[in-house]
Amino acid sequence: MAIPSADWLTPPMVAVGAETLTAVLEERFGVRGTLQDLGSQQDLNHRVRTESGGDHVLKIANPTTRPAALDRQVRAVEALTAAAPDLRLPRARPGTDGAFVQRITVNGVDLCARLLDHVPGEPIMDSRYLAPEVVARLGELSGRVAAGLAAVDVPEQDDARLWDLRNGLAVVEALAPQLTDRAAATRVLAAARAAHAHLAPLAHRLPVQTIHGDVTDNNVVCETGPQGRPRPVGVIDFGDLGPGWGVAELAVTCASVLHHHGCGPASVLPAVRAFHAVRPLEADEIDALWPLIVLRCAVLVASGRFDALQDPDNAYAAAALDREWAMLEAALSVPAEVMGAHFRAATGHPAPSGPPTAPHPLLVEPGGSVTFLDLSVLSDDLHGGAWLAPDAEAASAARAFAAGAAVVLTRHGEHRITRSRPEDPAAATLALGVELRTAGPVTLTAPWAGTLVHHGPHGVTLTADGWRLIIEGIEGIGDIDAGRGGEGPGRTPTVRAGDPIGTFAPRDGGPPAHVLLTRLADDAPPRFAAPGLAPGWLASCPDPTALILPAGALEPAPTPPAGDAADASPAELLARRDRSFAAVQEHYYEAPPRVERGWREYLLDTEGRCYLDVLNNVTILGHGHPRLAGAVHRQWQRLNTNSRFHYASVVELSERLAELLPAPLDQVFLVNSGSEAVDLALRLAWAATGRQDTVAIGEAYHGWTYASDAVSTSIADNPGALASRPDWVHALPAPNAYRGVHRGTGAGRYAPEAVAAIEALTASGRPPGAFICEPYYGNAGGMALPEGYLEQVYTAVRAAGGLCVADEVQVGYGRLGHHFWGFEQQGVVPDVVTVAKAMGNGHPLGAVITTREIAAAYRTQGYFFSSAGGSPVSSVVGLTVLDVLRDEKLQDNARTVGDRLRAGLQELAERHPLIGAVHGSGLYLGVEFVRDRSTREPATEETAAICERLRELGVIVQPTSDRQCVLKIKPPLCLTPDSADRFVSALDDTLTHGW
What we know:
Elements: H1 18-29, E1 33-37, E2 44-50, E3 55-60, H2 67-83, E4 92-93, E5 102-106, E6 109-117, H3 132-149, H4 168-175, H5 182-199, E7 208-211, E8 220-224, E9 230-235, E10 242-245, H6 246-257, H7 269-278, H8 283-310, H9 315-319, H10 321-331, H11 336-347, E11 370-372, H12 392-402, E12 407-409, E13 430-431, E14 434-438, E15 442-445, E16 450-454, E17 459-464, E18 467-472, H13 477-484, E19 494-495, E20 500-504, E21 513-518, E22 528-529, H14 534-540, H15 545-548, H16 570-580, E23 595-599, E24 602-605, E25 610-613, H17 626-638, H18 648-659, E26 667-671, H19 674-689, E27 694-697, H20 706-710, E28 729-732, H21 750-763, E29 770-773, E30 776-777, E31 783-784, H22 789-799, E32 803-807, H23 822-825, E33 832-835, E34 846-850, H24 852-857, H25 872-887, H26 890-911, E35 915-921, E36 924-932, E37 937-938, H27 940-952, E38 955-956, E39 958-960, E40 966-969, H28 977-993
Helix pairs in contact: 3-6, 3-7, 4-5, 4-8, 5-8, 6-8, 8-10, 8-11, 11-14, 17-25, 18-25, 21-22, 26-28
């Protein structure tokens, strides 16, 4: 249906004064109230607030809107209310004469007025980030509306409707010539025509029904969900109601997602899945969906710019121009074929048909063995940060040739770690083609008959049956043309299968030949794609390897070291984990990435995404440290046994640890973990004092063994912690200066109260044998104890004959930057020190250091032995960690970078009220989130959502504290200033644009 002219579309709305609106409201609907202009692109919308509290919306329709269309909207809303009674919908209120549509005349122009129920909630048009669950809810609402309106009969209208995507190309072609920005007009017209070309063969097969036509972020109202995210609950504005393609309902919804911060083509997938679950999509609808999204964006851009020209004072229309253009650019950023294939995979529809078989390979005579490079995250060829080198791929190929390979190929569909970038978690890592290298010159032949097109001196494209085989980086094209009687580049001869099409002559350090098989019409498809749309890209650019080599050369590649889990997707592997790995051993994140490599402060998943790790306090040196890996490798080849044997490393490690502590702490026990270290420390105290009563601190975590769990009081780790303590554990209130009983300057009262509790315990006949405390509070969020707290408590404990245990498992080894041990910050010397985590950089290693007298007292309990504690390998690990800490000045780095990071976080706190406090020192920090700074109500759900969003932005961090409202910030001590700034920037982005 053609649209005759742009003048027909949206004439400027008639001005209606406030007095007239008030009169219409009172005389026609019998309602009195105050009016608030809501803005509109075409109509007049005013919110009506009545004295009785019932709110409405007074709508004056554009003169082009027919009364019959408004009546149909009223009936449609009633039908949808019956089909989906839980949706919030704008039901119409009858006028004083019983009619829902009231006809009025203003300045000689006939208009129609309606009074609708005000739908409570807020739209989400401010371009804030939309989490996947919010997008899914949008798709679900769109599907429910489409399903609910399917039975509503709305006849076709005689005139064309602007927002009916069946008219999309006609609308753009009518409006684009009238736009003053000719570059924009040209681009939007080309986009509409390309989308229409995709739709043309499908259009007659797409189901038509009554649709809302505008279920968008602007017309979906939301309430605030438990995580501070918007939760769509209702739909307003049925002004575009009418017949249309059912799938257009979803296309309109998806298009509205594209302008939101951080959203792109992959972001609409949750909406597609949710819509399909409510109103199943047919295969043709799936294939039409992305072209319809492009067409919707083109119509928005064309109509929005035209309206702004026609009505330059319409601020509502003008404000939409930038976001409409952003939507179009996002829609054009990925080919429609890729998105169609991606949607098919997501909804369970069969993938598009694959390419034809090839009777002849490109490389008839490989001339020797074929090697496939492993450039994945699991590669054993890219350790020690080698994956970051610009020549990493060429170096891997060179090693393969040195080992005797005649042909070296990369792997199609591989997420290459060599394409990962720490600064870009969305880097394009997915290989869409295959790179070919050979030991000597080879001739390439056509795998099938087709048309050969030359592009430049080193590239050819062979086309057949809609498929294109693109080969770049080859030689000899002119010579082969001459042999055929050709005329050089630009010729398009028809070749037979097996005809020569070029040669590849390897050059030292030169690029490989690149082979890409595709059904895409783009002249130059990308060689790599971002992971988010992998199914769509791989269906559109399938594996060309079978076209390169004869069948006999395609022997299965050896299974990587990870065994049958090597190719498992994150979801598949998680399902296997859930079946065999006890569920009480939780994992981070709802849908965790599969992390298989670390380097310095980075973690990499199997899709090549690179994450900044600000959580992992275990790997104090950083992930994958080559010096530590080399030391372990050498020692394991030489010897690994237990510490009852006599060897040097266990002696050297014990000496080094004793040197790090003040006198008289010079006796070392080596164990496997922090839990074991705490357990042993308590047993030492009990043996030395002859008493078991132990004083612990609230909100603390110390481990999982019997004794270490007994003194752990954190309800985050054990909801029944306080009620399940054995009677020999006596917990003091957490000396939390931010949200405890005593806050700020009043925190000095914690110590005298703790002393009084210890004295009362002693007076009751149960003097403590031990007092255990983290000298810098870890579980509560990395905060300092009140000044002088340990000095007073230690004095009281020792006066009662007890021993003082400093749990340095999390804080020790220089993490505070300004102090090597946490107890140094308090100016005390404990009787027993426990250490682990950092001590082994991830290797199971811990220690207890105490005095000779206390150590000797353990003889009353028998002897102590740990099978792996102090083994040769563990001892070498411990020594190497100390060497690297010293040689790389990591404590100094923790101080300087930690101070920089803390300053950046404090600056965020000045701008974002959700941040209640920034705790900590060095690289032992915590950011505490609150809903209200005055009440300090913990923002627990928001913190979890923020962590999910930060993961999407490439930052790994998790909540801590009993209230789970503090970001646990304990990164490797090698954290760079740039990485610290990147974390601050990502957190700022999240707090600014939403989570």
